[in-house]
Task: structure prediction
Amino acid sequence: MKKYLRDYIPLFLVAGLIILLDQYTKFIVRENLALQETWVPWPWLAPYARIVHWYNTGVAFGMFQDGNLIFSILAFIVSIAILVVYPRIPREEKVIRITTMMMLAGAVGNLIDRLTVGHVTDFISIGSFAVFNVADMSITVGVAILILTVWLQERRERRKAGEALPAASVEGEEKLP
Result:
């Protein structure tokens, strides 16, 4: 039991903090801005960044609209899968553990919206990029760091394997001086 607590406490703390930040920021936007209303604290910032109350029934970048039910089910399945897999990730793999926390937080944050509001509240608008939220950032950054980490690990392992090959001799080959 202590082993599971040691595994799950960091997961629930980090994911919980991200979920709280996500839900709090969405609440502030829903309470203070009408749908599609924009707020820019400084006019010079308007072309680059602004807060706009938007909603999304699809996934990232507004793809697959009106898929709220299927994406709710998918977020639930992904969250359960992360809870099952997380304790199996070695504690030494801190980056992978943190990215997993971020992905869980993002999935749950958007799932809460889908179940309580009927859609995901988006509000961060940068340039002409799609409008997004804290949960979306958590998922995106988590996945990007995870992919980069796995790629770098595989590169290191291939390099080590490549360095080990010349030292080994293949049966039947002559060793050159």
Notes: The first strand starts at residue 38 and ends at 39. The chain is about 60% helix and 10% strand. The beta strands are 38-39, 49-56, 120-126. The chain has one domain: 2-164.
